[in-house]
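Action item from last meeting closed. Structure (180 res):
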């Protein structure tokens, strides 16, 4: 039985090293794809479900100085720039700054249009509200990516060895079941 646990531990250590080596790059590229895709949709009238809410929000933020069509083109370009920067891994500080500023603008409909973003204020978001609230994950992904722009990285556990599993393997017992 201990050989089985040692094999499981070795596989786990290998997967952990792979995730540490590839995780940030995959996160950066996948986040970039989301921004590029959603931004590109805004170039085509009626394809983005966020189009109306986005243009009204930009109008409020700019006190009506930017026409809706222009606002949508600016937002589409902005999001595509973020997406391309993330996918290509270039100008990361500027790309992440654009991301965080865009995310600040994205949450403002929760304040400006609460009756459209919540079915029951403040705890039951509408589909539009859920679309906005999920951006917490995008902001968190940006923070993790931002932690690496000066050379930071994820590192797997030292030694590639899980002491808890090794201890259980040495005793010939199984690890406790993981609650689901």
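Sequence:
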């Amino acid at each position: 039985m201990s050989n089985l646990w040692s094999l499981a531990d070795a596989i786990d250590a290998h997967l952990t090293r792979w995730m540490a080596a590839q995780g940030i790059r995959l996160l950066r590229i996948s986040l970039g794809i989301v921004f590029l895709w959603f931004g590109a949709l805004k170039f085509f009238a009626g394809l983005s479900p966020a189009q109306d809410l986005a243009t009204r929000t930009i109008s409020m933020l700019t006190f009506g100085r930017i026409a809706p069509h222009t606002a949508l083109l600016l937002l589409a370009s902005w999001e595509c720039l973020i997406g391309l920067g993330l996918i290509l891994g270039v100008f990361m500080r500027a790309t992440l700054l654009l991301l965080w500023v865009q995310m600040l603008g994205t949450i403002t409909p929760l304040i400006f249009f609460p009756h459209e973003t919540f079915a029951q204020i403040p705890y039951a978001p509408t589909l539009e509200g859920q679309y906005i609230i999920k951006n917490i994950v995008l902001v968190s992904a940006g923070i993790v990516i931002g932690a690496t722009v000066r050379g930071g990285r994820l590192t797997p556990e030292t030694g590639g060895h899980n002491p808890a599993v090794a201890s259980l393997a040495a005793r010939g017992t199984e690890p406790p079941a993981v609650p689901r």
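Note appended to the action item: The mean pLDDT is 89.
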